[in-house]
Specification:
The complex is a heterodimer of chains A (113) and B (113).
Chain A (H helix, E strand, L loop, with lengths): L3 E4 L2 E4 L5 E7 L5 E7 L5 E9 L2 E4 L6 E3 L9 E3 L8 E8 L8 E2 L3 E5 L1
Parallel strand pairs in A: 2-11
Antiparallel strand pairs in A: 1-3, 3-8, 4-5, 4-9, 5-6, 7-8, 9-10, 9-11
Chain B lengths: L3 E4 L2 E5 L4 E7 L6 E7 L6 E7 L4 E4 L2 E6 L4 E6 L8 E8 L7 E3 L3 E6 L1
Parallel strand pairs in B: 2-11
Antiparallel strand pairs in B: 1-3, 3-8, 4-5, 4-9, 6-7, 7-8, 9-10, 9-11
The chains are: A mainly beta (113), B mainly beta (113).
Chain lengths: 113, 113
Amino acid sequence: DGGITQSPKYLFRKEGQNVTLSCEQNLNHDAMYWYRQDPGQGLRLIYYSQIVNDFQKGDIAEGYSVSREKKESFPLTVTSAQKNPTAFYLCASSAGWGAHEQYFGPGTRLTVT
Amino acid sequence: GENVEQHPSTLSVQEGDSAVIKCTYSDSASNYFPWYKQELGKRPQLIIDIRSNVGEKKDQRIAVTLNKTAKHFSLHITETQPEDSAVYFCAASTMDSSYKLIFGSGTRLLVRP
């Protein structure tokens, strides 16, 4: 999992602003995922991508958007439409296509006030 | 869709004792079951996983057992140490082409010195 990076580690934004979280991997993994984690809770899937230029909504996609223009990169935009954006955001990747093991980045803690 | 339930939500054990965390899943077709350990503020780390063609897997003090008939799997930690204190998540794979993981809600394990 050392090959997955997320930046920044902490992010502060005012309500009503869009913000983009970065996720990069150098593991040559095909699949990438974005999860949201709230205090004391599990991981909920926001979006995932199995291959470049393709992505699918997860369980809580409303108020979020993604792109997958390069294999190594899967940025997540938290839009002003997301009603409660303050959370810990985790990016993960897996080799894909039958390889289930997912490895996580260090996370970005987003605070919106 | 797949649903994963995890118990207990918190577990406190004396150093040296064993700890057991249990998960049940709903989709009998799921075939991959990982366990992650997450220390406070850190990324989840894959600690052990099991596939449906295996009933038990061990790695030093950690073991996972799988009962496909009952659709449950368990994490066993023996000779617990204070550094085992963390939140543990189980997960089960979906059996569509997405290779998504559905996570349990987590167990906070406290090992008392």
